[in-house]
Specification:
The chain is mainly alpha-helical. The protein contains 5 helices and 2 strands; from the N terminus they run αβααβαα. The chain binds a DNA duplex through helix 2, helix 3 and helix 4. InterPro entries: ATL_DNA_repair, MethylDNA_cys_MeTrfase_DNA-bd, MethylDNA_cys_MeTrfase_DNAb, WH-like_DNA-bd_sf.
DNA sequence: ACTTTGACCCGCT
DNA sequence: AAGCGGGCCAAAG
């Protein structure tokens, strides 16, 4: 895995406008490594310190929050709402509405 | 070198 | 709705 993978993912994340969200799969794909969704997860779980990343804007496929029940999931939900993102009772996000503008699953462009 | 472990994903019960 | 199995691939033990 080239060193720039991490860098790219971070950059993409920083470029993501507030109030919008993306997914592990989409990040991996846009970083040039399709099917590497897990690696994005692993990256975010061991975040290089010194970089402040809006990790909470990263969701699982279909707009699901990862590791439901975990402490981070609760935080994520809170932070997202603070961003103005609506969550269903099940804690899911409508990607068509809040998804990454360039992503296929998003219908609401910039 | 081999095995286990993920902040994953998809399709099928 | 919820669980299972298989696929995925790098990192850590």
């Amino acid at each position: 895995m080239p060193p720039d993978f991490d860098r790219k993912v971070i950059a993409l994340l920083l470029a993501l406008p507030p109030g919008r969200v993306t997914t592990y799969g989409a990040l991996a794909e846009q970083a040039g490594y399709p099917r590497h969704s897990r690696h994005v997860g692993r990256l975010l779980s061991h975040l290089p310190d010194g970089v402040s990343v809006p990790w909470f804007r990263v969701l699982g496929a279909g707009g699901r929050i990862s590791r439901p029940g975990s402490e981070q999931a609760d935080w994520q939900r809170l932070l997202l709402e603070e961003d103005g993102v609506e969550l269903s009772a099940a804690g899911k996000v409508d990607l068509r509405r809040y998804g990454w503008p360039d992503a296929h699953f998003c219908s609401k462009k910039l």
